[in-house]
Design brief:
The chain is an alpha/beta fold. Helix content is about 45%, strand content about 15%. The longest helix has 18 residues. The protein is elongated and about 85 Å long.
Length: about 350
């Protein structure tokens, strides 16, 4: 059997520091009104005794749980197979760790999980939520709004009801797509096709719109729908080669789909970039560098987007401390994109 070791109490810290229990509580829980010499004595006593605040008791004082839910509206098979999510989670985790907050990961395998997630968020377990990879018909935003939880979204929200305001972080998807297509035109390509992402997500719609901004005359034969996966890129590339065998360039909605497109082009004996130039989107390393050939792509700073999402949420929580308002002020942050040139275009 393991012996139970008693934990130091507030009373023990107070006795060691020579102050009252109330003074220790204010210092430990970040309260005001304690003179600096007493603060130092309490902190020294906490360190000497190895005192760890009781989180439940601390929450009663601060009304904070020091925990943030990260909600990804995708099944776990997709989340753990796509490096995009790992990069974004890394940025979120770094920022939360720097602010002494815990990350609680919530995934949605299907619609049955949405009510579960909403109940958890409404139950007072976390201070706020970071939500990304939403689909246009997803009920999660409405459920989260109803739960009254401060939320920051990853990606431009797709609703336009004018009721639900949103704080979000995104990249310039449309501008990045225009930059990619203009680069292909600058290479002398004239039959430029596009493999979209999942068109129930705003990032894919924005990238398609950017493609059409430059290629206004491109007919439906030069656009094939993908789903942001390598298999989707393969399917779409086969469709394009069947419909438009004379194409000489492809702008693909993300790097993973571009890998699938490159495989199909090799199967059909098309040399990249000699016969067909290929540009992706994301610049996920090492995927883009290790592609065959290395992939020219539009870079978005995925990790920084995650970090910024967490930073905006934490600032919102700090700004509303003691206030009744539970929804951060509406705003959107759009980060720039850059074209990274490699061998594929």
């Amino acid at each position: 059997m393991t012996e139970t070791v008693s934990r130091p109490t507030l009373e023990a810290v107070a006795a060691r520091a020579g102050v009252s229990r109330a003074t220790v509580s204010r210092v430990v829980n970040g309260g005001d009104g304690v003179r600096e010499p007493l603060v130092e004595r309490v902190r020294r006593a906490v360190e000497e005794l190895g005192y760890v605040p009781n989180q439940a008791a601390r929450s009663l004082v601060t009304r904070r749980h020091d925990a943030v839910a990260v909600v990804i509206a995708e099944p776990e098979t997709r989340v753990f197979a796509d490096p995009f999510f790992a990069l974004q989670l890394r940025g979120i985790s770094k920022e939360l760790t720097a602010n002494d907050s815990q990350l609680v990961l919530l995934l949605t395998e299907g619609r049955d999980d949405h009510a579960r997630v909403a109940r958890y968020l409404a139950g007072g377990h976390v201070d706020g939520a970071l939500v990304f990879s939403l689909h246009l018909d997803d009920p999660l935003p409405g459920l989260i709004h109803g739960a009254g939880v401060p939320t920051v979204f990853g990606g431009r929200p797709g609703w336009g009801d004018g009721v639900r305001e949103a704080v979000y972080v995104d990249c310039d998807n449309r501008g990045g797509a225009r930059q990619a297509v203009r680069h292909l035109i600058g290479l002398g390509r004239t039959r430029i096709a596009h493999i979209t992402g999942a068109l129930d997500q705003t990032s894919a719609v924005d990238r398609l719109d950017g493609f059409r901004d430059v290629m206004a005359d491109a007919g439906p034969a030069l656009v094939a729908q993908g789903d942001f996966t390598p298999a989707g890129g393969e399917r779409a590339m086969r469709e394009l080669l069947e419909r438009s065998p004379d194409l000489d360039a492809v702008f693909v909605a993300n790097d993973l789909s571009a890998l699938g497109a490159l495989r199909v082009l090799r199967e059909h004996g098309r040399r990249v970039p000699d016969d067909v130039a290929v540009i992706g989107f994301d610049d996920m390393l090492p995927i883009a560098e290790q592609a065959d050939p290395p992939l020219t792509t539009v870079r978005q700073d995925i990790e920084e987007m995650g970090r910024l999402m967490a930073r905006l949420l934490i600032r919102g929580l700090e700004g509303r401390a003691g206030a009744e308002d539970t929804v951060p002020e509406a705003s959107g942050v759009v980060l720039p994109t850059t074209l990274v040139r490699r061998a594929s275009a």
